[in-house]
Design goal:
There is one protein chain. By secondary structure, this protein is mainly alpha-helical. The termini are far apart. Helix 14 runs antiparallel to helix 15. Helices cover 68% and strands 0% of the residues.
Length: 451
């Protein structure tokens, strides 16, 4: 981790003027008692969390658009409903118990204390900066930045299980995933738990966020079963095209943009020239890994199928992003390109492999987030001398086993109690009409007859 103790000096006088303007609106008490350099650090670190956090929040729109484009028109409103609901549930659960379960009192163990987050009074927090060892960012900004990450993990599950899962069982699972499961495995590394003490490394969450979502999605897909008509009795695979490639592409670009906050914000500080330089390098590596994944997927689909598959190219970019997330700072540009390129290969190989196994993943989230997340976490050892392949694999296996087994149990309980799958008639009708009541494209359905 970069040494954040140095004072950032970007533009010298310009920084001083900007900081002075910001401080003019703050607590008079803090301005009188807290050293100017300390306040500058606090302001820029807090601003970093907030700006990077709302970039990650915007990824919720990316997932919504991607899924809306990759499902059929009769299921678009359902996906949009799931995405706004899961983001909202994630925020509530992470405030209620998730954040403290992940960060409060873990101390090398397995989890913290499940209790609501209590934020300090702004004036008191500002005045407290005068104390030795004070935290150099606002507590609320840290909570916000951490919260938007947990929503990403839940979004991964939504896409995989699309077009045949009931709304309310899915949302019940989201409550448990965001409030309990994600915070527990997050505590193992980011909360200072046992994996952190062992030396496991995952900079921004290839495993802690993306593979967690992928394992939960895989467990759900196995118990839920494929969509009607996806696989023939003879083992044939019947493609089910999505409704809108423009929406899917827009969603991919939104996710790509949000990823700069995802990875860049995980530097966790913007209080020195060195930290800002690190963030800039992270942006470059993140962008190039995504580009490499997209180009490799483009070339491979042309070579293998004789035509370019736009869905593979979109997922190739996303797989490149997931792959570089475990370590976007340390790799050289050639290594970042290689890590992202392998992500593109993973998509082209594993999407058809899942079909052979009759695991119906509507948006390709399992190859993109689970398999590429595993790859990216292993690849950390290529660039970080203090990371070992053995430790990285232990972390992957531990987090994967916990998430998959617990997810399988929860999905099974839901399946055999309230049920998780809509009826055959409702699936054929479409979940917009069956579960939501508001169709995304009513002019394409029976409603157009009355217009």
């Amino acid at each position: 981790m970069i040494d954040n103790r140095k004072v950032m000096r970007l533009g010298g006088a310009g920084l001083a003027v900007s900081a002075a303007l910001l401080l003019s609106t703050g607590s008079a008490l803090a301005a009188e008692t807290v050293p100017f350099e300390t306040q500058v650090k606090f302001i820029f670190n807090t601003l970093n969390f907030l700006v990077m956090g709302f970039l990650v929040m915007w990824m919720a729109a990316g997932f919504a658009m991607l899924e809306a484009g990759l499902v059929r028109t009769k299921n678009v409103s359902m996906q949009l409903t799931k995405n706004i609901a899961l983001y909202s549930i994630a925020g509530l659960m992470y405030w209620l118990i998730g954040y403290n379960l992940m960060y409060s009192g873990v101390d090398g163990g397995f989890f913290g204390t499940p209790m609501p987050v209590m934020l300090p009074d702004p004036a008191a927090e500002a005045a407290g900066l005068a104390k030795e060892g004070a935290t150099m960012y606002a507590a609320a900004s840290d909570w916000f930045f951490q919260m938007v990450f947990v929503a990403t993990a839940a979004s991964i599950v939504s896409g995989t299980l699309a077009e045949r899962i009931k709304l309310w069982p899915f949302l019940i699972f989201v409550v448990i995933l965001t409030g309990v499961m994600y915070p527990i495995t997050g505590a193992w590394k980011w909360g200072g738990g046992w994996l952190d003490k062992m030396g496991f490394q995952d900079f921004a969450g290839s495993t802690l966020v993306h593979s967690v979502g992928g394992w939960a999605a895989l467990a759900g897909a196995m118990l839920l079963g494929p969509r009607i008509g996806k696989y023939g009795k003879d083992g044939s695979v019947h493609p089910i095209p999505g409704s809108s490639m423009p929406l899917a592409t827009l969603g991919t670009f939104i996710l790509w943009l949000g990823w700069f906050g995802f990875n860049g914000g995980s530097q966790l500080a913007m209080d020195s020239a060195e930290n800002v330089s690190a963030i800039a390098r992270i942006f470059v590596n993140t962008n190039l890994a995504a580009a490499a994944g997209a180009v490799v997927a483009l070339l491979l689909t042309q070579i293998i199928y004789g035509k370019v598959d736009i869905t593979m190219v979109l997922n190739g970019a996303l797989a490149g992003l997931v792959s570089i997330t475990a370590e976007p700072l340390a790799p050289s540009i050639p290594l970042a390109l290689f890590v992202g390129a392998v992500g593109g290969v993973i998509v082209v190989i594993f999407v058809p492999l899942l079909d052979k196994l009759k695991i119906d993943d509507v948006v390709g989230a399992i190859p993109v987030h689970l398999i590429a997340g595993i790859w990216g976490t292993i690849a950390v050892a290529f660039s970080n001398s203090d990371a070992s392949f053995a430790t990285q694999i232990i972390g992957i296996v531990a987090i994967g086993a916990f998430t998959f087994i617990v997810s399988l149990v929860i999905w099974a309980i839901l399946k055999f109690t309230i049920g998780i799958r809509v009826s055959e008639e409702e699936e054929m009708m479409g979940l917009d009409a069956a579960e939501i009541g508001v169709e995304a494209y009513p002019e394409f359905g029976k409603g157009s007859q009355a217009i």
